[in-house]
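Researcher: Hi, I'm a grad student and pretty new to this. My advisor asked me to get structures for two proteins we've been looking at. I'm not sure of the right format, so I'll just paste the first sequence and hope you can take it from there.
Model: That works fine. Here's the first sequence with its structure tokens right after it:
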Amino acid sequence: MKKSSPKKSLSKKISVKKGSVKKSPLKKSAPKKSLTKNFFQKKSSAKSFSPKKFPVKKDSKVQKVNFRKFRNPLDKLNAWQKVRLAAIIVIALLLVGGGFFFVESYKVRNVKVEGSTHYTTEQIKNMVITDKFSENSVYLSLKYKNKKIENIPFVEHMDVVIEDRNTIKIVVYEKALAGYVTYLENRMYFDKDGIVVEISKESVPGIPEISGLDFDHVVLHEPLPVEDPKVFKDILSMTQLLNKYSLVADRIYFDRAGEITLHFDGVRVTLGTSDYLDEKVMRLAAILPKLRGMKGRLHMETYSDAHKNTTFDIDSN
């Protein structure tokens, strides 16, 4: 019988050499591909995002919050520093509360005005109370203490007197005006020394116009440039006498010889020189009411203690 040939082994091949035995590596069979698994992997990868595409960096801003950084800053203060901080807060609160109480308790609610002939009470009030601070009576009394007024015509200075916490009295001290001269269609008001204290188009009641003075210019806060400055002494005496006997002249004329003529509506009064000036004006106060409505000239040039006669010349039509 024929001997059958040995079967070839698919798993191993053993080759024997002299002095060594070597195993031949097995051939690994390729893994079987699963069609079902591959199908679902392709389908899912089309719609889902792989986390590998958006790696989270270690230095990203989204990190763990270190709450130690947000500790109370007061923890760093010692006991003495905490006491001092508390004292400062208490003092600040007291100051704020005290300031509020001071503002509300001394708020101006009633205003009285004294000594103003040029302005009404409401006008003076608006000149003094100009802001929120000015609504406090204590503040106003300190602000206007011995303060000279520069921007209000005819007013020298004003004082604010506190009558009670909510009531003040504004005392107005007006400029002492002796008269005015007309220059370039303006009224140049001057005081007893002839210093121009105000320039205005406004007519001030009781202040007469002075005519007959020669000057070529006028400067505010400087004397009128007249030939004889002594004339201002006569002007002051004349205006004071008129006020003394409650007489209001429209105009006072001084000629070069120093003689004085007063104008009252249609009546002209010739006083002559300043001799017996007080007696002349006193006599004029008694005569003038009898001449009301008349036009003419009253002669008082020669009036004296020995000669008290006066004459009145009526103007012819």
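Researcher: Oh nice, that was easy. Here's the second one.
Model: And its structure:
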Amino acid sequence: MTYEIICLAIFFLGLLMQYQMAAQLLASFPLGFSVEDTARHGRPLCFVGGLGLGVLLLGVELFLLVFTVGCCAIACCHRFFVQAHFDERGQEEGFWTDTISFCREYATFLLLVFVIRNFAFQHYRVPTGSLEPTVRPGDFLLVNQFSYGWHLPIINTKIADYGEPKRGDIALFRLPSDPYRVIYVKRVVGLPGDHIEYKNKQLKINGELVLQEYIGLEQEFGTGHQEWMSKRKEFLPGKSHDILVKGGFGFDDVEVDLVVPEDAYFMMGDNRDLSLDSRFFGPVDKKYLLGKVMFLLLSWDGWYPDWSRIGEKV
């Protein structure tokens, strides 16, 4: 809520700077700004505050849709209906003039970004350590949205059905309880119809124990505590990968025994004790899947990137 208040304050400050009386008051301070300068600097504040508030309230996905459609609508209306009137009056400075100019210049670019991001590829920055040791906090992942078919954004309706998630894939998906605001990345462990059991840090799929091989101790970084945890190699059917587990109380103490419904998938993080996944919110319906993670674009968690991991397949 703190960020929303900050964005709202920035927006109202910028709006206040548009009014003549407030502009004259602010111009009276020894900052070297004239009344015109104060009003001109207030418009970017309105813009930044409004954008920030929109992203926080609507979420990135819904905001990008609304913002792109709004910019394109304003640009089209100006081009076909009011351009002649606008040109006759001249390019007078003002909030609406700046808004129209922005829409005219960036509508095509925003539309292109929207199409690519929602129907082709998008990047995702990993915020937590739930997929350590494979994926670390601060990693930027490239997601192929062709992998599991094409979906219409926001309404999660599939328009082209091809490609199915495979066991062991790392997939990007919308959180079923809050699909417009929250996006998760986890590993596909259970396929439709699978009987999944999880107990004492051991996974069973259709009654068969998934073998684990102890590798050694490794520090995890997602919590900031850099705890030493047991690193193991887990042998999923058709795919092997590394996991982290620890002793004592953790998320893994929750036991699971269920059959994955049709058109749904059981998702888990590789950092088994520190992952909020299908053990808590249940299997994920196929309509919420966004795509398959292809490789690491950039690893950056701190003051500088880890160049050695760029382009690493996951």
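Researcher: Is there anything I should tell my advisor about the second?
Model: You could mention this: The radius of gyration is 25 Å.
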